[in-house]
Specification:
With 91 residues, the protein is mainly α. Helix content is 31%, strand content 7%.
Length: 91
């Protein structure tokens, strides 16, 4: 059992070292296509009718919003160029 543990630790270190060697070897490229395997499919394509995380991830790549939030959770323009708020805050 101890030999297996040492072998596993050695393998992990060897893999980490190999990944580290190739870290700066090639200039990153922009663009292209990302293909991945998701554990589930979106249950419905209506963002107001689902709670599945995969659905929200899918929507984030299909639907643009008028505003987004910055790091202070303040709305910032995305598709909207400007907006005004009524004095009572209801419109």
């Amino acid at each position: 059992m101890k030999f297996r543990s040492l072998l596993l630790v050695g393998l992990i270190f060897a893999m980490a070292f190999a990944v580290g060697l190739g870290a700066g070897a090639e200039e990153p490229r922009r663009g292209g296509t990302l293909t991945f395997l998701a554990s589930a499919s979106p249950d419905i394509l209506d963002p107001q009718a689902t709670v599945m995380a995969i659905s929200f991830w899918t929507f984030s790549h299909m639907i643009d919003t008028l505003t987004e939030f910055d790091h202070n959770l303040e709305p910032v323009p995305h598709l909207a160029e400007s907006w005004e708020m009524s004095e009572d805050g209801l419109a």
